[in-house]
Amino acid sequence: MSGNWVFVGAAFAVTWAVILGYLVHLHRTLARAQAQLDSAVAGRR
Amino acid sequence: MSNAAIAPAIAVPRTGGWQKFGWFAFAFLIASQALAIAISPPDRDMGDLQKIMYVHVPSAWMTMLAPLALLFFSLRYLWRKREEDDLLAAASGEVAVAFAGLTLVLGMLWARPTWGVWWTWDARLTSTLVLFLILAGFLSVRALIDDREQRAQWSAAVGILGAINVPIVYMSVRWWRTIHQIQSSPATVDPAYVIGLRLNAFAFLFVMIYFIRRRYEAALLERAAEHVAERAALGGTT
Amino acid sequence: MTVRREWRRARAIAWKDLTAERRSKAGFNGVVTLAVTILVMFGFALGPDAQALREAAAGAVWLAALFAGVLAFNRSYQIELDGGALEQLVLYPGSRRTIFAGKLLANFAFVGLVLAIVVLVGIVLFQVQVPAQWPALVATLFLGMVGLVTLGTFYAAIASRSRAREVLLPLLLFPMLVPVLLAAMEATKALLGGNVMGDAGAWTRLLIVFDVIFLVATFLAFESVIEV
After folding, report:
1. C134-167 as b/e: b if 16+ CB within 10 A
2. For residues B6 and B227, is the Cβ–Cβ distance under 8 A?
3. C153, C166, C171, C207: which to substitute to probe chain B, counting the most B Cβ within 10 Å?
4. Residue of C204, C162, C209 whose CA lies nearest to C185
5. Residues B193, B187 contacting (CB under 8 angstroms)
6. Which end is more exposed in chain C, N or C (fewer Cβ atoms within 10 Å of the end residue's Cβ)?
7. Residues in B touching C164 (Cβ below 8 Å)
8. What is the model's pTM?
9. Which residues of C touch B131 (CB under 8 A)?
């Protein structure tokens, strides 16, 4: 059954890839939104 | 269409507490995964493949919870018409898609060594696929409709109908399988694994809540930026 | 508004939609031709073995009706969209539900007729033997059509008003139709095969339940969709 370790390993790898990937997506989206807000506020003055 | 009519500016969120929660959620997840892998003995039948359960099952549970959040916020939006609920529904939908996709891949990684094929049309896997497609439709509506009120109303309607259809889809696919006399293998959980499973389930739940919250915060910031820009465009300085 | 007046309004809307359709006969003829063409394509994909065709007939017929129906659903809002009349229609006194009811009725007639033709052509092309229980078959086809048209008319209210309507309608509609289509296809399959296992009754009952659920849900949700 040792061949199954490939699948178990892949499963954990994919899980962390998705979770970390979504974190990166969140970070980028937040940064972009913050930049949008900053530039809007700056443009207002 | 004047959207600046949404009068009070949405408050820009303060994230101090939530960021700490995020750190906690991830620490908890790492700990739960390490613990579960360390203490669980190999299964009689599945051997080490059993360990997939610690990501697959919690991911599947989140795939069921996130649409419930979507349903809740969509209903609340239609009831109170507050934009916060629309943004929360959208955040829930996005996180739901991520977990649905993950569950599908994990299901396939489980199926291949178990049954020799990458895909089986069994009730759970198939229902997850249909849910994924329903959620993709929800996100398409949000992406394609520019008018803010239209987008909120329509995605709420689409989200609600989609969410309530999920158990119906599951039921009909299961019946479909039974009629064609294909036995699905029931997954019963050996008591030895329950603790690891529960820990990871909670860990995934914390992570999901954190994701939804942060996605919502980003949406609030975007909305605040739009609001400022619109006010400036309409009447000079605020 | 009294029920009778609502019913009359719905019928008026249905009649308007259908006669506008009839005046442009290209509409109905085009959709039927498309449906038959799709059926023929399925024949090429699944045949030419007679046994394989017979087994696939139910599925092919329903899918042909589905793909052709997508055209019909979007176009049922086209008339108002072209003239900007949708806002006007909504402003008239009386519930928005009569608009939905009217469009439903028109689409029941339209898609029902298309389906009937597709079934007849399918019986010929896929070498199906008409079962003794053909009245039950007709009932099943009708019930499946109701579910298909209900969800199709509802989602078209959204899709037809977006820029990507050809993509958005199938994208939204098809996953939602899984229960209805499964039940309709399985019941049709069972009846065409003589209902050996007696499954047809169970699937048909399930289909009725689905139809009721989706009729109620779409009527309730239509208000939110049409008012913006």
Report:
1. eebbebbbebbbbbbbbbbbbbbbbbbbbeebee
2. yes
3. C171
4. C204
5. no
6. N
7. 140, 144
8. 0.92
9. 175
